[in-house]
Amino acid sequence: MEKRKENKMGVMPVPRLLVTMSLPIMASMLVQALYNVVDSIFVAQISENALTAVSLALPIQTLMIAVSVGTGVGINALLSRRLGEKQQEEANTVAAQGLLLSVASWLVFLLFGIFFSRMFIAAFTNIPEIIEMGTEYVSICTIFSFGVFVQVAFERIMQSTGNTIYHMFIQGVGAVTNIILDPIMIFGYFGCPAMGVAGAAWATVIGQIVAMILGAVLNHFKNKEVRITLAHFKPHGRIIKEIYSVGFPSIIMQSISSIMTVGLNFILSLPTAISVYGVYYKLQTFVFMPIFGLTNAMVPIIGYNFGAKNRERIMGTIKLGLVISVGIMAAGTILFQLIPDKLLLLFNAKGDMLSLGVPALRIIATCFVFAGIAIIFSAVYQALGHGFLSMALSIIRQLLVILPAAYILKSVFGGSAVWFAFPLSEIVATTISIFLYRYIYKTVIQPLGNSKEANIL
């Protein structure tokens, strides 16, 4: 009988493996960040009210990404472990159950889009134009969100088997579709009616649907390690529970950013300040997306080698991930310190928005390196089956620290002091993440066996 080829996540040198797996994901996420920014750049040309409407919709979009990516983290971690343990049939079932959960998640947002879009936008403003544009934008993005949920599931299935190059194709095609359609549908080119803010929403969902279709095709024809049949889609309670044991804390962890954004929008209150925060959120994706791409590659590598009980490869992955993350975040900090005005001018910033935004970007950027360290450790917890620790860390950082700090700073020192809550929360989170890592190392990593690798802390 022919010996089965060993999965590269168990044999390829760690530096080469992490770089070759993460670079395609980083590239695709940078393209993803680009089209998110392009959306807002085009919308800002309509009016500041249009930019505010899209900024108010940000928590709902973030929540959809949180649910889809969080479920994907659960799929990724469990599927990679089953492959590492050579449980092929179980791996196939995990992939199918993940797709099933993605469709179920879309149905929840479908109902929200139909019944609650206007109520959500009206909670933040009484300006009729912003309410109308925001309601239309949120409705389209939620009702037709099946594309993003299923797309992310297919991406994570590919990642779990080490096929990250196809992840780049999937996200890249969706992003390029969105970028091309944005000006056409917003301003009305080539015979298309000018739809304004609604055009930006339609461009987004069409790009997601195109990416979903490509993900299905690539998984069917190129993914040789996972083969899904209709029988695998029968609901399987144990596997769903295992997916969510890692995925649900990740969903909560990422959803917290939506709650944080809602809270900050209430604290900021002024439309111009909300627009500045919306612009910052879009811009920071260029810095954070490569780190998330890196962690997306780290999770299956660590998960696979945890299943294979290979401690040295786990430690090598963690060390290299930290070095790369700190380097990227340091570069992002320098960029935000040097040219914040030029970054804001991309969004047609003028007057109050420019004077408020320049110091805001510089203050917030001081937290990037700390955030990079905490994000890497969070990925380690998830990959080793301790997603709850990541959730706890995010709750402390984004709810228990940043919102109270923002409220107190504004009350005592004025609105411009709100931005100092960001570096404060990241310093606290990084300190806690180090203590949690030391616990994980002693209880989970160290018992795997003897190793020449020393602990990094």
Kindly describe this structure.
It is a single chain. This protein has 17 helices and no strands. The chain has 457 residues and is mainly alpha-helical. The chain is globular and about 60 Å long. The N and C termini lie far apart (46 Å). The model has no long low-confidence stretch (mean pLDDT 84).
Short structural summary:
The chain is an all-alpha fold. Helices cover 82% and strands 0% of the residues.
- Give the overall shape, derived from the CA principal axes: globular
Number of strands: 0
Structural class: mainly alpha
Number of helices: 17
**Helix amount:** over 70%
The N- to C-terminal Cα distance equals 46 Å
H-E string: HHHHHHHHHHHHHHHHH
Which radius of gyration do the C-alpha atoms yield?
22 Å
Largest pleated sheet: none
Q: Which stretches are low in confidence, meaning pLDDT under 50 for 5 or more residues running?
A: none
Residue-averaged pLDDT, rounded?
A: 84
Percent of sequence in beta strands: under 5%
Please give a handful of descriptors for the protein shown:
about 450 residues, mainly alpha
Write the layout of secondary structure elements.
Elements: H1 8-11, H2 14-44, H3 48-84, H4 88-115, H5 117-122, H6 128-143, H7 146-160, H8 164-187, H9 197-222, H10 237-268, H11 271-307, H12 311-338, H13 340-345, H14 351-365, H15 368-383, H16 387-413, H17 421-445
Helix pairs in contact: 2-8, 2-11, 3-4, 3-6, 3-7, 3-10, 3-11, 4-6, 4-7, 6-9, 7-8, 7-9, 8-9, 10-16, 11-12, 11-14, 11-15, 12-14, 12-15, 15-16, 15-17, 16-17
